[in-house]
Amino acid sequence: xxDAARAALEASGIDVGKTHKxxxxxxxxxxxxxxxxxxxxxxxLKHAETFRYVADYEDYQVELSDAQEIVKQAETxxxxxxxxxxxxxxxxxxxxxxMSEGRGDQEQAEREGC
Length: 114
Fold this sequence. Notes:
- The chain is an all-alpha fold.
- It is about 65% helix and about 0% strand.
- The longest helix has 22 residues, at about 65-85.
């Protein structure tokens, strides 16, 4: 989620902080408070930060059910970032179908426009 938030800020031309806290504050101030994203998206990122902090710095383990919920929230968050900051035309160049057809060589990738 933090990488997706960082990518959204960079796509918006906003300088990204070097710490998790800086990233959270910049994301909240620029993309949620004054920007295009709903508050719920900001809450999802903050919620993930809470669990990241507990897992990294506290003497507690994150419960499996909590981890599963965070994964669901991450999917929602990343989908929102893609929809807002990665228009469909940016995906048009990437066409991995040749790989599933057993033609994964460089020449085929070039023919496919990748």
